[in-house]
Amino acid sequence: MDGAAQGRRWRTAAAAVVLAALVAGATAQGCSPEPQAPALSAELNQFRDNYGTKIIQIQLSNTSSAPVTVFNAEVSSALFPAGTRWANEPQGTEVPPGQTKSLPATLPAPSCSISGTDDEAGTSAGAGPADITVSVRAGSTTSEVKLLAADPFGVLARNHSELCLAQYAGQIARINLAPELKVAADGRTAVVRLQVTPHGARKGTPDALTIERIEGTTLLAEVPDSPWPRDVRVVAGGDPEEFRLHIRPARCDPHAVAEDKVGTLLPVRLSVGGRRGTLKVAAGVALKGRIYEFASAACGAH
To answer: How far apart are CA 286 and CA 179, in angstroms?
Structure first.
């Protein structure tokens, strides 16, 4: 090889070394990989003492080896198009490694134009995940993370079903429990009053509903010789009605009252506007206390 050829080969090799050094420098200074998002998983749930309310739980689990701080979390679902949001800014809440935090969020008004037949549709609809956007800080980096949240108990679908049923029924009548409780002389049974007050008929809304049956709760049951009403038709613009429900304790174990969460939510099975489902009629604070007192005393009398 002549001297000129050797010179060209040397210059080519030197240029390659310089290029490699420049690329390495650029990677180190400005082309480093994006920081990894914190390892989070999400699930939706609802505590039993929030049944009858619109509060659900966004449960975030930290599967990484370092703590993360969550500032807000928002659930996106076609069932609740306004979005369901938890926020605790500016301080946020820390999720330690290997732990789960439950973040309460209030459901907005549902989109009741989505087709469904309540209980049956709600069960199947709950199988799909929901989209969640989380604002989170890991170390010194704050970012937005998009997650798919499992909904194994159909929380969104069940609440959508119940809220839409309540919305439809509320267009026809107000259904509530009177605050008084009348206890029988022997203390073993009592009477609560279910009040149904129809509203005036309105164009574009259902004109009637049917109370198919009233179901017992974990705390209260029907008195066998005084059955609760069935197949009651309520017409918009009709007269108010009141139904006397004779009740007895459904159970008398020591934990019946002490651990009760849903025993004073009366399930009213009804159909309205092509929907069928259960309207949970809650006892007010005063009636709730009286029911607990009655159940405890009635069980003690056995």
So the answer is: 6
